[in-house]
Design goal:
disordered C terminus, 2 domains, mainly alpha, about 40% helix, two-stranded parallel sheet, about 200 residues, 4 strands, globular, AB_hydrolase_fold
Length: about 200
C-alpha cells in the first residue's frame, strides 16, 4: 500500500543470467523504450503512437519472462493470462501521474474492522514490510505465511490457498493459524525492507 515501497525492484534478483537476458531483450527493444519514455510525459501521445494491442502483446511477453521470479520453485510455465493491459498498469506509475495516492491514513482513520486475510509467500519478491503495512492498517487481520510459495502463491500452492480461503470465508480470522511475529521468519527469502526512493528518484535504504 505504501507508494514509496519499491521492493518490486528486487524481482530481477530472483532471475539467473539467462532469464534476465530474456527479460531485458523485451524491455530494451528501441520501440518499447521510446513508448515507455513518451508515456512518462504524454500518455495520450504514447497510446496514439503504439496501440493497446501492440503494447499488451509486449507486456505479456515481459510478464512471461518474469515468471520464474514469481515462484519458489522457479518457472511454472505460462500462466495463461492475457489482456494484462500495458497502459492500465504503467500509466498510473508514470511521471505524468504525479504523486501517488497513499490510502493508509484514510483507512486507519476509518477504523476498518472487518476481517482481512493477508497471505505472504516465503519467496515473495516484495518486502516483508509490505505485509506489515496491511497488519498495521487493518486491526482485524490475520497474516498467513506459506514458506514454500512465491508471489503467485495461489498458483504455486492452489490447494493450500483454497483451504485457507474457505476457512476464512466461513469463520473469518478467528480459527486461522497465522504468523504472529513482526519480523520476517528466518526462512523468508524475499526483500526484508522496503526500498524507497528520494526526491531524485534514487533508491535509499
Amino acid at each position: 500500500m505504501d507508494p514509496q515501497d519499491h521492493s518490486d525492484a528486487t524481482l530481477t534478483q530472483r532471475l539467473d543470467s539467462s532469464q534476465k537476458w530474456k527479460l531485458y531483450r523485451h524491455l530494451l527493444h528501441p520501440r518499447a523504450l521510446f513508448v515507455y519514455g513518451l508515456l512518462q510525459f504524454h500518455p495520450d501521445a504514447a497510446q496514439s503512437f503504439a496501440s493497446d494491442d501492440e503494447m499488451d502483446r509486449r507486456f505479456e511477453a515481459v510478464y512471461a519472462a518474469t515468471a520464474p521470479a514469481l515462484y519458489c520453485s522457479g518457472d511454472q510455465g505460462h500462466s495463461g493470462l492475457s489482456g494484462l493491459g500495458f497502459y492500465a498498469n504503467q500509466t498510473p506509475q508514470s511521471l505524468a501521474a504525479g504523486n501517488h495516492y497513499d490510502p493508509r491514513p484514510l483507512l486507519s482513520e476509518k477504523h476498518f474492522t472487518l476481517p482481512v486475510l493477508i497471505a505472504k509467500g516465503g519467496c515473495d519478491y516484495l518486502s516483508w514490510e509490505s505485509a506489515e503495512d496491511y497488519r498495521r492498517v487493518f486491526p482485524n487481520s490475520k497474516l498467513v505465511y506459506l514458506p514454500e510459495a512465491g508471489h503467485n502463491l495461489y498458483q504455486e500452492q492452489p490447494d493450500v490457498m483454497m483451504g485457507i480461503l474457505r476457512e476464512f470465508l466461513e469463520s473469518g480470522t478467528g480459527k486461522l493459524q497465522g504468523y504472529e511475529g513482526r519480523v520476517p521468519p528466518e526462512d523468508y527469502q524475499g526483500a526484508r525492507a522496503a526500498r524507497k526512493k528520494n526526491e531524485h528518484g534514487h533508491e535509499i535504504g
